[in-house]
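The following block was generated as part of the benchmark described in Methods. Ligand: magnesium ion.
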Amino acid sequence: MNNTNVITLSNITKIYQTEEVETLALDNINIKIDAGEYVSIVGLSGCGKSTLLSILGLLDKPTDGQYLLNGRDVSDLSRNHQANIRNEMIGFVFQSFNLISDLTVEENIELPLTYRNHLTKSQRADMVKSALLKVNMEHRAKHLPSQLSGGQQQRIAIARAIAGSPKIILADEPTGNLDSQNALAIVELLDKLNKQGTTICVVTHDPRSVQGATRQIRLHDGKVCEDVASLKSAVA
Ligand SMILES: Nc1ncnc2c1ncn2[C@@H]1O[C@H](COP(=O)(O)OP(=O)(O)OP(=O)(O)O)[C@@H](O)[C@H]1O
Ligand SMILES: [Mg+2]
């Protein structure tokens, strides 16, 4: 095995079973992602992008197939175990920010860190401060999410995702609810994190938001139908 592979998906299938219908959301997916890659995942609505990201982010389990994260099989761990690994390794950014409305900005960022038992209160405070600085939001630490603009809320969501120094950032339509100026700030932030070595996978419909991506994976009906190096990396 190539030991720089941070993600290896082999024959991953995901079937959603509801009372009436069975949906094959992912159909035999095989993807390897190296440390430091910046992957954009694109495709039509319903093709399985969010499903793929939730499996990568250990928010959901595949129906079949194997997921190796940093060489370790995480396909079928208990929820608790998954949550611990996610907390240490992965930062997740959602289209709708998903901040907790009655916690302040700094409390939101601190929350995932409180599940890391070895961290002291003052270590957590330092990590929160440093994450806020990275997204230029240190002046809003005591605000509630509702007191911030959409772009600022997304920057806080990114601060929450990066506070624990994850190896991987997964972002599902991170600019989907933002105007172009705020979207650009988020895109620049993701580019910067990637340049600092973070592996990034971003789902997006917005071509502006993947300028920095080095690879594009296109899904169609739950299958990978294209997997190419982006122009930018080809000329680099
Ligand atoms: N929780 C669920 N239960 C049942 N079916 C689901 C569930 N989540 C997604 N699906 C189905 O799985 C398929 C893939 O959905 P998914 O959300 O991954 O698509 P997507 O590519 O992210 O689409 P979009 O661009 O609209 O966000 C769709 O047919 C969807 O209806
Ligand atoms: Mg989606």
